[in-house]
Amino acid sequence: MRRMVAETRLQPADLILPAFVREGITEPVPIAAMPGVVQHTRDTLRKAAVEALEAGVSGIMLFGVPEDAKKDAAGTAGTDPEGILQVAIRDVKAEVGDDLVIMSDLCLDEYTDHGHCGVLDGDGRVDNDATLERYAEMAQVQADAGVHVVGPSGMMDGQVGVVRDALDTIGKEDVSILAYTAKYSSAFYGPFREAVGSSLQGDRKTYQQDPANLRESMRELALDLEEGADMVMVKPAGPYLDVLAKVAESVDVPVAAYQISGEYAMVEAAAEKGWIDRDRAIFETLTGIRRAGAQMILTYWATEVGQKLSAGRR
Ligand code: PBG
């Protein structure tokens, strides 16, 4: 009876798998703070994409991890057509074609030696407008590599509009933009730093949002839509379900939520200690995010949950 009258359902197609691919490795490297998640080799990434597809997952969000020596102040590897992310997009595309939606993180922090999402001005602050020029170039190389959706995640003002123009200029009108609309400056990104080998100097408070603010997200939402966002996202997910609910009731574009590294790590750590029921906790967090209004959820559990849903275990 509960199953029959359930108001919220979770399906494999609701899920998007974020995945890391690291340059220059021959074996996958486990991420200690995210048990079960690895930095992929080019080869294991292709396999992970196939596995996700077979589990019914609808998309994969790719993050590139360049060799340390290739990180610099401008994040040059992010716009190199032979940079790891661009190579990985082509690899995944060759493997799964258009059956899986291929998405890419459009941000500089994986490629900068200072770990910020943009380039810095003379005072060491992120320079918004100079960063936008880098993002425009990134969007173009990612689109050239064959990505279906770009995800500008740096929270620079005007990023969606600049990326839209850059894509249209090179005839990539059909590449969509998943806007990180409401992205909060969060402690829960912690494990991600290890995942992308980033040693951030300082914090992101000059460009990411204050957890105390909700109305600010509605302003970000209006701007992103005006600039041409095709889909919008709230991130992190769990601590911001009210923001998600409000965004979802205010728009008619698809709404996504990103269950981030720290949300994953918390459940895995508590489960490892035997303090919570891992499976139930995972499904409860995802159901909560769906109930709050996300149509799509980026989660590191995507493939596993997709498999379990397909097997009828939930
Ligand atoms: C920026 C980016 C971050 C995440 C996704 N894109 C890091 C940040 O903004 O600090 C975090 C994802 C996660 O924690 O799982 N490139």
From TrEMBL:
<dbReference type="GO" id="GO:0008270">
    <property type="term" value="F:zinc ion binding"/>
</dbReference>
<comment type="pathway">
    <text>Porphyrin-containing compound metabolism; protoporphyrin-IX biosynthesis; coproporphyrinogen-III from 5-aminolevulinate: step 1/4.</text>
</comment>
<dbReference type="GO" id="GO:0004655">
    <property type="term" value="F:porphobilinogen synthase activity"/>
</dbReference>
<dbReference type="GO" id="GO:0005829">
    <property type="term" value="C:cytosol"/>
</dbReference>
<feature type="binding site">
    <location>
        <position position="204"/>
    </location>
    <ligand>
        <name>5-aminolevulinate 1</name>
    </ligand>
</feature>
<keyword id="KW-0350">Heme biosynthesis</keyword>
<dbReference type="InterPro" id="IPR013785">
    <property type="entry name" value="Aldolase_TIM"/>
</dbReference>
<dbReference type="InterPro" id="IPR030656">
    <property type="entry name" value="ALAD_AS"/>
</dbReference>
<comment type="function">
    <text>Catalyzes an early step in the biosynthesis of tetrapyrroles. Binds two molecules of 5-aminolevulinate per subunit, each at a distinct site, and catalyzes their condensation to form porphobilinogen.</text>
</comment>
<protein>
    <recommendedName>
        <fullName>Delta-aminolevulinic acid dehydratase</fullName>
        <ecNumber>4.2.1.24</ecNumber>
    </recommendedName>
</protein>
<feature type="active site" description="Schiff-base intermediate with substrate">
    <location>
        <position position="183"/>
    </location>
</feature>
<feature type="binding site">
    <location>
        <position position="193"/>
    </location>
    <ligand>
        <name>5-aminolevulinate 1</name>
    </ligand>
</feature>
<dbReference type="GO" id="GO:0006782">
    <property type="term" value="P:protoporphyrinogen IX biosynthetic process"/>
</dbReference>
<feature type="active site" description="Schiff-base intermediate with substrate">
    <location>
        <position position="235"/>
    </location>
</feature>
<keyword id="KW-0456">Lyase</keyword>
<comment type="subunit">
    <text>Homooctamer.</text>
</comment>
<comment type="similarity">
    <text>Belongs to the ALAD family.</text>
</comment>
<dbReference type="Pfam" id="PF00490">
    <property type="entry name" value="ALAD"/>
</dbReference>
<keyword id="KW-0460">Magnesium</keyword>
<feature type="binding site">
    <location>
        <position position="300"/>
    </location>
    <ligand>
        <name>5-aminolevulinate 2</name>
    </ligand>
</feature>
<feature type="binding site">
    <location>
        <position position="220"/>
    </location>
    <ligand>
        <name>Mg(2+)</name>
    </ligand>
</feature>
<feature type="binding site">
    <location>
        <position position="261"/>
    </location>
    <ligand>
        <name>5-aminolevulinate 2</name>
    </ligand>
</feature>
<keyword id="KW-0627">Porphyrin biosynthesis</keyword>
<keyword id="KW-0479">Metal-binding</keyword>
<dbReference type="InterPro" id="IPR001731">
    <property type="entry name" value="ALAD"/>
</dbReference>
